[in-house]
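Q: Sequence in, structure out?
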Amino acid sequence: MAAMTLLPLLFDTLLGLSLIWLAWRALTSTDLFQAIVLFIAFGLLMALTWVRLDAPDVAMAEAAIGAGLTGALLLATLARLKANNKTKSAPEKKFSLLLTLIILPVVTGLVYVVLTLPQNTPGLAILVAENLKTTGVTNPVTAVLLNYRGYDTLLELAVLLVALLGVWSFGGVPKPHEAYSGPVLNMLLRLLIPLLIMVAGYLLWVGANAPGGAFQAGSVLGAAGVLLLLAGWQLSTRFAELPLRIILVSGVVMFTMAGIVFIVSGRQFLEYPPSFAGAFILLIEAAATLSIGITLAALFLGGRPGLRRHK
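A: Exactly. Output:
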Protein backbone atom coordinates (compact mmCIF):
# COMPACT_ATOMS: atom_id res chain seq x y z
CA MET A 1 0.00 0.00 0.00
CA ALA A 2 2.87 2.35 0.85
CA ALA A 3 4.50 1.53 -2.50
CA MET A 4 1.29 2.51 -4.33
CA THR A 5 1.26 5.80 -2.44
CA LEU A 6 4.89 6.54 -3.33
CA LEU A 7 4.44 5.68 -7.00
CA PRO A 8 2.65 8.95 -7.99
CA LEU A 9 5.26 10.94 -6.05
CA LEU A 10 8.07 9.14 -7.83
CA PHE A 11 6.40 9.68 -11.22
CA ASP A 12 5.88 13.41 -10.56
CA THR A 13 9.48 13.77 -9.39
CA LEU A 14 10.83 12.13 -12.53
CA LEU A 15 8.49 14.24 -14.64
CA GLY A 16 9.68 17.46 -13.00
CA LEU A 17 13.36 16.53 -13.33
CA SER A 18 12.83 15.58 -16.98
CA LEU A 19 11.25 18.99 -17.68
CA ILE A 20 14.20 20.79 -16.11
CA TRP A 21 16.70 18.68 -18.04
CA LEU A 22 14.90 19.13 -21.38
CA ALA A 23 14.59 22.88 -20.85
CA TRP A 24 18.29 23.19 -20.06
CA ARG A 25 19.35 21.03 -23.00
CA ALA A 26 17.09 22.96 -25.40
CA LEU A 27 18.58 26.28 -24.26
CA THR A 28 22.20 25.17 -24.32
CA SER A 29 22.23 22.99 -27.44
CA THR A 30 24.44 24.31 -30.24
CA ASP A 31 22.55 22.27 -32.84
CA LEU A 32 19.37 24.11 -33.80
CA PHE A 33 17.57 20.99 -35.02
CA GLN A 34 18.37 19.18 -31.78
CA ALA A 35 17.18 22.18 -29.78
CA ILE A 36 13.84 22.19 -31.63
CA VAL A 37 13.33 18.46 -31.07
CA LEU A 38 14.10 18.94 -27.37
CA PHE A 39 11.63 21.84 -27.27
CA ILE A 40 8.90 19.65 -28.79
CA ALA A 41 9.66 16.90 -26.27
CA PHE A 42 9.47 19.51 -23.50
CA GLY A 43 6.05 20.61 -24.75
CA LEU A 44 4.72 17.04 -24.74
CA LEU A 45 5.93 16.43 -21.18
CA MET A 46 4.52 19.81 -20.17
CA ALA A 47 1.13 18.72 -21.50
CA LEU A 48 1.40 15.58 -19.35
CA THR A 49 2.28 17.79 -16.38
CA TRP A 50 -0.90 19.82 -16.84
CA VAL A 51 -2.87 16.58 -16.93
CA ARG A 52 -1.29 15.62 -13.60
CA LEU A 53 -2.37 19.04 -12.28
CA ASP A 54 -6.00 18.36 -13.33
CA ALA A 55 -5.93 21.05 -16.02
CA PRO A 56 -7.03 19.24 -19.20
CA ASP A 57 -7.87 22.50 -21.02
CA VAL A 58 -4.32 23.78 -20.63
CA ALA A 59 -2.93 20.32 -21.45
CA MET A 60 -4.75 20.25 -24.80
CA ALA A 61 -3.57 23.75 -25.67
CA GLU A 62 0.01 22.89 -24.69
CA ALA A 63 0.06 19.68 -26.74
CA ALA A 64 -1.46 21.32 -29.83
CA ILE A 65 0.21 24.75 -29.74
CA GLY A 66 3.22 24.45 -27.44
CA ALA A 67 4.51 21.16 -28.85
CA GLY A 68 2.76 20.70 -32.20
CA LEU A 69 2.29 23.96 -34.05
CA THR A 70 5.16 25.84 -32.42
CA GLY A 71 7.46 22.94 -33.21
CA ALA A 72 6.29 23.01 -36.82
CA LEU A 73 6.91 26.77 -36.98
CA LEU A 74 10.44 26.36 -35.61
CA LEU A 75 11.23 23.53 -38.05
CA ALA A 76 9.89 25.60 -40.95
CA THR A 77 12.04 28.54 -39.83
CA LEU A 78 15.11 26.31 -39.59
CA ALA A 79 14.50 24.96 -43.10
CA ARG A 80 14.48 28.52 -44.47
CA LEU A 81 17.74 29.59 -42.89
CA LYS A 82 20.45 30.03 -45.47
CA ALA A 83 23.22 28.90 -43.14
CA ASN A 84 23.36 27.12 -39.81
CA ASN A 85 26.46 27.92 -37.80
CA LYS A 86 26.70 25.29 -35.07
CA THR A 87 29.70 26.86 -33.31
CA LYS A 88 29.18 29.71 -30.94
CA SER A 89 31.27 32.79 -31.46
CA ALA A 90 32.68 34.81 -28.59
CA PRO A 91 29.84 37.41 -28.64
CA GLU A 92 27.28 34.58 -28.57
CA LYS A 93 29.00 33.00 -25.57
CA LYS A 94 28.98 36.33 -23.76
CA PHE A 95 25.31 36.74 -24.55
CA SER A 96 24.60 33.24 -23.18
CA LEU A 97 26.43 34.11 -19.97
CA LEU A 98 24.51 37.38 -19.64
CA LEU A 99 21.23 35.55 -20.28
CA THR A 100 22.09 33.02 -17.58
CA LEU A 101 22.84 35.79 -15.09
CA ILE A 102 19.46 37.36 -15.86
CA ILE A 103 17.51 34.11 -15.64
CA LEU A 104 19.02 32.88 -12.37
CA PRO A 105 17.47 35.62 -10.16
CA VAL A 106 14.09 35.05 -11.84
CA VAL A 107 14.29 31.30 -11.20
CA THR A 108 15.39 31.92 -7.61
CA GLY A 109 12.45 34.25 -7.06
CA LEU A 110 9.98 31.78 -8.52
CA VAL A 111 11.31 28.96 -6.33
CA TYR A 112 11.06 31.20 -3.27
CA VAL A 113 7.46 32.18 -4.09
CA VAL A 114 6.41 28.56 -4.60
CA LEU A 115 8.07 27.40 -1.37
CA THR A 116 6.51 30.20 0.67
CA LEU A 117 2.95 29.73 -0.60
CA PRO A 118 0.45 29.03 2.18
CA GLN A 119 -0.58 25.41 2.49
CA ASN A 120 -4.35 25.89 2.53
CA THR A 121 -5.80 28.72 0.46
CA PRO A 122 -9.36 28.78 -0.91
CA GLY A 123 -8.35 30.79 -3.98
CA LEU A 124 -11.07 32.01 -6.32
CA ALA A 125 -12.51 28.60 -7.18
CA ILE A 126 -15.34 29.00 -4.67
CA LEU A 127 -16.37 32.39 -6.06
CA VAL A 128 -16.28 31.03 -9.62
CA ALA A 129 -18.47 28.07 -8.64
CA GLU A 130 -20.97 30.29 -6.82
CA ASN A 131 -21.44 32.58 -9.83
CA LEU A 132 -21.20 29.94 -12.56
CA LYS A 133 -24.93 30.05 -13.32
CA THR A 134 -24.73 33.68 -14.44
CA THR A 135 -21.91 33.04 -16.91
CA GLY A 136 -23.94 31.08 -19.46
CA VAL A 137 -21.58 28.07 -19.36
CA THR A 138 -20.88 25.23 -16.94
CA ASN A 139 -17.18 24.82 -17.68
CA PRO A 140 -15.36 27.01 -15.12
CA VAL A 141 -12.34 27.48 -17.41
CA THR A 142 -14.50 28.91 -20.19
CA ALA A 143 -16.30 31.06 -17.63
CA VAL A 144 -13.00 32.52 -16.46
CA LEU A 145 -11.64 33.08 -19.97
CA LEU A 146 -14.78 34.68 -21.45
CA ASN A 147 -16.31 36.33 -18.37
CA TYR A 148 -13.98 37.08 -15.49
CA ARG A 149 -10.88 37.74 -17.60
CA GLY A 150 -12.42 38.56 -20.96
CA TYR A 151 -10.07 41.52 -21.38
CA ASP A 152 -7.05 39.19 -21.25
CA THR A 153 -8.55 36.80 -23.81
CA LEU A 154 -9.32 39.70 -26.16
CA LEU A 155 -5.74 40.95 -25.84
CA GLU A 156 -4.38 37.45 -26.50
CA LEU A 157 -6.26 37.37 -29.80
CA ALA A 158 -4.93 40.84 -30.63
CA VAL A 159 -1.34 39.81 -29.83
CA LEU A 160 -1.65 36.77 -32.11
CA LEU A 161 -2.90 39.04 -34.90
CA VAL A 162 -0.05 41.52 -34.34
CA ALA A 163 2.46 38.65 -34.52
CA LEU A 164 1.08 37.68 -37.93
CA LEU A 165 1.28 41.30 -39.12
CA GLY A 166 4.93 41.30 -38.01
CA VAL A 167 5.60 38.23 -40.16
CA TRP A 168 3.76 39.79 -43.10
CA SER A 169 5.89 42.93 -42.80
CA PHE A 170 8.86 40.91 -44.09
CA GLY A 171 7.14 40.54 -47.46
CA GLY A 172 5.67 37.68 -49.43
CA VAL A 173 5.91 33.95 -48.87
CA PRO A 174 9.24 32.27 -49.67
CA LYS A 175 9.68 30.38 -52.88
CA PRO A 176 8.00 27.01 -52.29
CA HIS A 177 10.08 23.86 -52.20
CA GLU A 178 9.04 20.68 -53.93
CA ALA A 179 6.16 19.15 -51.96
CA TYR A 180 6.61 15.60 -50.72
CA SER A 181 3.28 14.36 -51.96
CA GLY A 182 2.23 10.86 -52.91
CA PRO A 183 -0.68 8.44 -52.84
CA VAL A 184 -0.17 7.57 -49.16
CA LEU A 185 0.06 11.19 -48.05
CA ASN A 186 -2.90 12.19 -50.20
CA MET A 187 -5.02 9.39 -48.74
CA LEU A 188 -4.03 10.40 -45.20
CA LEU A 189 -4.91 14.01 -45.93
CA ARG A 190 -8.34 13.03 -47.24
CA LEU A 191 -8.92 11.22 -43.95
CA LEU A 192 -7.20 13.55 -41.50
CA ILE A 193 -8.36 16.98 -42.72
CA PRO A 194 -12.12 16.28 -42.34
CA LEU A 195 -11.41 14.53 -39.04
CA LEU A 196 -9.44 17.50 -37.70
CA ILE A 197 -12.20 19.90 -38.77
CA MET A 198 -14.77 17.73 -36.97
CA VAL A 199 -12.59 17.60 -33.85
CA ALA A 200 -12.20 21.39 -33.95
CA GLY A 201 -15.98 21.79 -34.19
CA TYR A 202 -16.50 19.37 -31.31
CA LEU A 203 -13.96 21.16 -29.09
CA LEU A 204 -15.65 24.47 -29.86
CA TRP A 205 -19.12 23.15 -29.03
CA VAL A 206 -18.16 21.17 -25.92
CA GLY A 207 -16.06 24.02 -24.49
CA ALA A 208 -19.10 25.47 -22.71
CA ASN A 209 -19.55 22.36 -20.59
CA ALA A 210 -16.27 20.40 -20.70
CA PRO A 211 -12.56 20.88 -21.52
CA GLY A 212 -12.27 22.60 -24.88
CA GLY A 213 -12.94 26.02 -26.33
CA ALA A 214 -11.72 28.43 -28.99
CA PHE A 215 -7.97 28.11 -28.45
CA GLN A 216 -8.04 24.31 -28.44
CA ALA A 217 -10.36 24.18 -31.46
CA GLY A 218 -8.36 26.85 -33.28
CA SER A 219 -5.08 25.02 -32.73
CA VAL A 220 -6.55 21.82 -34.20
CA LEU A 221 -7.90 23.81 -37.16
CA GLY A 222 -4.46 25.39 -37.57
CA ALA A 223 -2.87 21.93 -37.57
CA ALA A 224 -5.14 20.96 -40.47
CA GLY A 225 -3.94 24.04 -42.36
CA VAL A 226 -0.29 23.20 -41.66
CA LEU A 227 -0.80 19.67 -43.02
CA LEU A 228 -2.30 21.09 -46.21
CA LEU A 229 0.63 23.50 -46.62
CA LEU A 230 3.15 20.70 -46.07
CA ALA A 231 1.44 18.71 -48.82
CA GLY A 232 1.89 21.59 -51.27
CA TRP A 233 -1.57 23.13 -51.09
CA GLN A 234 -1.64 26.81 -52.04
CA LEU A 235 -4.26 29.41 -51.22
CA SER A 236 -6.13 30.73 -54.24
CA THR A 237 -5.32 34.35 -55.05
CA ARG A 238 -8.99 35.34 -54.86
CA PHE A 239 -9.09 34.30 -51.20
CA ALA A 240 -5.65 35.69 -50.30
CA GLU A 241 -6.75 39.30 -49.96
CA LEU A 242 -10.02 40.57 -48.45
CA PRO A 243 -11.65 37.22 -47.48
CA LEU A 244 -8.51 36.11 -45.65
CA ARG A 245 -8.21 39.41 -43.78
CA ILE A 246 -11.86 39.29 -42.72
CA ILE A 247 -11.37 35.84 -41.19
CA LEU A 248 -8.13 36.88 -39.48
CA VAL A 249 -9.69 39.86 -37.71
CA SER A 250 -13.07 38.20 -37.08
CA GLY A 251 -12.14 37.04 -33.57
CA VAL A 252 -10.99 40.45 -32.34
CA VAL A 253 -13.82 42.26 -34.16
CA MET A 254 -16.55 39.96 -32.84
CA PHE A 255 -15.17 40.21 -29.30
CA THR A 256 -14.98 44.01 -29.47
CA MET A 257 -18.38 44.46 -31.12
CA ALA A 258 -20.03 42.30 -28.45
CA GLY A 259 -18.49 44.49 -25.76
CA ILE A 260 -19.72 47.65 -27.49
CA VAL A 261 -23.24 46.20 -27.75
CA PHE A 262 -23.23 45.61 -23.99
CA ILE A 263 -22.15 49.21 -23.36
CA VAL A 264 -24.96 50.54 -25.57
CA SER A 265 -27.46 48.38 -23.69
CA GLY A 266 -26.41 49.96 -20.39
CA ARG A 267 -23.94 47.32 -19.18
CA GLN A 268 -20.18 47.26 -18.73
CA PHE A 269 -17.82 46.25 -21.53
CA LEU A 270 -18.02 42.43 -21.91
CA GLU A 271 -20.67 42.16 -19.19
CA TYR A 272 -22.90 39.45 -20.68
CA PRO A 273 -26.65 39.42 -19.99
CA PRO A 274 -27.21 36.16 -18.03
CA SER A 275 -30.08 35.05 -20.28
CA PHE A 276 -28.01 35.41 -23.48
CA ALA A 277 -24.50 34.83 -22.12
CA GLY A 278 -24.21 31.31 -23.55
CA ALA A 279 -25.20 32.41 -27.07
CA PHE A 280 -22.80 35.37 -27.02
CA ILE A 281 -19.94 33.20 -25.80
CA LEU A 282 -20.55 30.59 -28.51
CA LEU A 283 -20.67 33.31 -31.18
CA ILE A 284 -17.44 34.90 -29.95
CA GLU A 285 -15.65 31.56 -29.64
CA ALA A 286 -16.76 30.48 -33.14
CA ALA A 287 -15.23 33.62 -34.65
CA ALA A 288 -12.14 33.23 -32.46
CA THR A 289 -11.70 29.60 -33.56
CA LEU A 290 -11.60 30.56 -37.23
CA SER A 291 -9.31 33.50 -36.51
CA ILE A 292 -6.87 31.46 -34.40
CA GLY A 293 -6.78 28.53 -36.82
CA ILE A 294 -6.15 30.63 -39.92
CA THR A 295 -3.62 32.81 -38.09
CA LEU A 296 -1.57 29.80 -36.96
CA ALA A 297 -1.58 28.35 -40.47
CA ALA A 298 -0.63 31.76 -41.92
CA LEU A 299 2.27 32.02 -39.47
CA PHE A 300 3.54 28.69 -40.74
CA LEU A 301 3.27 29.97 -44.31
CA GLY A 302 5.89 32.56 -43.38
CA GLY A 303 4.80 35.56 -45.43
CA ARG A 304 1.91 37.53 -46.85
CA PRO A 305 -0.17 35.47 -49.30
CA GLY A 306 -0.42 36.96 -52.77
CA LEU A 307 3.22 38.07 -52.76
CA ARG A 308 6.21 35.92 -53.65
CA ARG A 309 9.48 36.41 -51.81
CA HIS A 310 12.45 35.60 -54.05
CA LYS A 311 15.59 34.09 -52.53
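Residues 122-311 form one domain.
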